[in-house]
Design goal:
Blueprint lengths: L1 H24 L5 H22 L5 H11 L12 H14 L4 H26 L5 E2 L2 E2 H6 L2 H5 L6 H15 L7 H14 L1 H17 L6 H17 L1 H7 L9 H17 L12 H10 L8 H19 L6 H6 L3 H20 L3 H7 L4 H39 L1
Antiparallel strand pairs: 1-2
């Protein structure tokens, strides 16, 4: 444990030049806020460590395999679970990191994901919508469920970094190509199907957004992601055990989803929702547990957070929302596409509330971006309307004075 605490202090120290570099590029970034976020995140490192002492955790298996199962680093390389062990091998096996230190290291990966998501939000929101006097973007940074599942030595921490970096890069992909390539590689290696959703969102956003994007940029995004999906489609299908010669994609995916849900249902974490109809599965994925069905003490805390999710989602039930989505930016359309496609796919393989609580951290920020962008748009429209009325009144006063 002492080694883990020393590592956390070291990671805090090396985070400072990273934060200051981002501050130079993005003046809106608050160094003090990012430092508070660091310690808040590591508070959940402690919470997660305490939690896994009495609950099953995939991170224990990852640590065992990363530290003992391989003779060389590249022997560990692969997709899905193997990639996490590949990243962990030089630290757990070569450097001899303890289990607590591996949790601390991967918690830092999760923290970097929050940094990228913060820049993504603030860079693309012109005003600062608030809730209860708190900036929504700041509030999004401190949602407990997001932190709890991004501090472990697991897929959740690293894929959260990859998705956050991807969102950040898509603002200007041609200028942030290294971040785009690295994030795509991370997401693909951990969950190839999620990479497909990111690619679908990027293509949909760039081809339908209101910005006048040069055709060569659109083609770059299209060829890059569609080409990647085609090239790596065999890997995605192999992970799902789908054989196109014997079954179609839909039938194969349904069989995979059924089998995956069945295996997840044996995790014993929460209420079985495997047999729910799809609409109820989606609502469960997004907004449950809600106190009455909360699985344990953590579920109670998540219930409060889910109430916030419901409240924010209701903001989209507006007569102007369809028009807004139709005329929105490529990033809004990308986020909406990623959120919906990922939610549909993940809903198929969910088996209980415990799984839903863990998986939603990958996609909810994209819903938040759509919500806060819409609120930002409404504020801009309101300001423009007030400015127009003021100019009209000033013109009328001027005319009356001359009369």
């Amino acid at each position: 444990m002492v080694g883990a605490i020393v590592l956390i202090l070291f990671l805090y120290a090396i985070s400072q030049p990273i934060i200051k570099n981002l501050k130079q590029k993005f003046p809106f970034l608050s160094v003090d806020l990012m430092n508070k976020l660091f310690w808040f995140h590591y508070l959940f490192w402690g919470v997660y460590y305490w939690y896994q002492l009495s609950h099953p955790s995939d991170s224990k298996g990852y640590y065992h395999d990363a530290s003992t199962a391989y003779d060389s680093w590249f022997e560990a390389f692969g997709t899905d679970t193997h990639f996490i062990e590949f990243i962990g091998y030089p630290f757990a096996d070569v450097l001899g990191f303890t289990y607590e230190s591996m949790l601390a290291l991967f918690a830092w990966f999760g923290y970097l994901g929050f940094l990228y998501f913060y820049v993504f939000f603030r860079e693309n929101i012109k005003t600062s919508p608030k809730l209860w006097g708190i900036e929504l973007v700041t509030l999004f940074l401190f949602l407990p469920n997001m932190h709890f599942w991004t501090v472990a030595f697991s897929k959740g921490s690293l894929i959260f970094l990859g998705i956050g970096m991807f969102a950040y890069a898509m603002r200007v992909p041609q200028k942030r190509l290294p971040a785009l390539l690295l994030s795509s590689f991370i997401v693909f290696c951990i969950r190839p199907h999620v990479f497909m959703f990111l690619g679908a969102g990027a293509v949909a956003g760039y081809f339908t957004g209101k910005e006048k994007v040069p055709m060569y940029q659109k083609m770059l995004v299209y060829v890059g992601f569609i080409g990647g999906i085609i090239v790596f489609s065999d890997t995605v299908l192999a992970m799902a055990n789908i054989n196109l010669e014997e079954e179609g994609v839909i039938e194969g995916f349904e069989e995979f989803a059924s089998g995956r849900a069945s295996s997840l249902s044996r995790s014993g974490s929460g209420i079985d929702i495997n047999n729910y109809p799809l609409p109820l599965k989606l609502l469960t994925f997004w907004f449950r547990p809600l106190f009455f069905d909360a699985p344990g003490a953590i579920g109670i805390f998540v219930s409060f957070e889910n109430l916030l999710y419901i409240f924010l989602t209701l903001k989209l039930f507006d007569k102007n929302i369809i028009r807004y989505i139709k005329n929105s930016t490529s990033l809004v359309k990308m986020s909406l596409t990623i959120f919906l496609t990922s939610s549909l796919a993940l809903a198929f393989v969910m088996a209980n509330l415990g799984i839903a609580m863990r998986q939603k951290s990958m996609v909810m920020y994209f819903l938040f971006f759509v919500v806060v962008s819409f609120l930002d748009h409404k504020r801009q429209v309101k300001v423009q309307r007030l400015q127009l009325q003021r100019r009209k009144m000033e013109t009328e006063l001027t005319l009356n004075a001359h009369a």
